[in-house]
Amino acid sequence: MEKAIQLKVRKDLDARQHHTILKLKGSLISKGYTEIIHILDQDEEFHINSFETAVEKRNEVQQYIAAFINSENLSDTVSLK
User: Based on the number of CB atoms within 10 Å of its own CB, is 45 exposed (0-12), middle (13-18) or buried (19 or more)?
Assistant: First the structure.
C-alpha cells in the first residue's frame, strides 16, 4: 500500500453535497479500496482527502472516483488531485 490518491474537496458544501461526499468516502472503504481516509486543510476553501490503496488498484480507484463525480454532478465540489 502507498499513499496514491488525493481528492480536493470544497469546504463550503450544502447538505446534499456533504451527504454525497460521505457516500463516496464510504463506498471507497466498503469496496476495499482503503481502510481510512485522511483529511487535511489545504487553505480556506479546500480540504485534501488522501488515502492509501494498492498500486494495482490505483487506476481502478481513479476511474471509480471520476465516474462517481460525473454521475453525481460534483465536478465543482470535488476533484482528483
Answer: exposed
